[in-house]
Amino acid sequence: MNDWVVRLIEQSGYLGVGFLMFLETVFPPIPSEIIMTVAGVTAANGKLDLMMVILSGTAGAMLGNIFWYLAARALGIQRLRPFIQKYGKWLTLTWRDIERAHDWMDRRGALFVMVGRVIPSIRSLVSVPAGLLDMRFKSFVIASTIGTFAWTALLAGAGFQLKSSFEQVDQFITPFANTVLVTMVLVYLWRLATHKGS
């Protein structure tokens, strides 16, 4: 995959960076860690401008973020109510939890989205609860843009400074991403063990 990413960025420049980041957001198995690090290395080699790389990556990712937000908002949480009521135990959710989450999103949704955008493993999923729980679109876009810009700047800047391959940056990011995944699994298992239906 790395070679394909390198070729596309070298051939398509900023458009390629934006397109890849859009795909990464819509189809998470394409990792932003590779895309933006390679783009940063390309900028370090003088073929691209670092700030334009960051802005292109942010713009592409934001298109994907907005796509998932609008899709989730069009679906709406009410349509999922029968599913949640039937499989609530396995989701570790009750409808009362959803109502509380809706209120929480009104108060702290911007912080949730902003911070979520810089956490590996969940950053591409943040748009879904924001859309389902009717977070205001303007707040969503502002918070997502800030968080996404920070993430793309971090990765592109790392590639630019190291002037090396994704593997070096991955040595720092992968342990953190794995910790996030393990924590999510443990939290889910704890919630499953302690879950009480409504």
What is the makeup of the main sheet?
none
Number of helices: 8
Choose one word for the global shape: elongated
| Quaternary organisation of the protein chains | single chain
CA-based gyration radius: 18 Å
Structural class: mainly alpha
- Can you write the helix and strand succession as a string? HHHHHHHH
Percent helix among the residues? over 70%
Distance between the termini: 46 Å
In total, how many domains does the architecture comprise?
1
Report low-confidence residues grouped into runs of 5 or more: none
Question: What's the pLDDT, averaged over the residues?
Answer: 80
**Beta-sheet strand percentage?**
under 5%
Number of strands: 0
Membrane topology: Multi-pass membrane protein
Protein name: DedA family protein
Subcellular location: Cell membrane
Domain VTT: 30-159
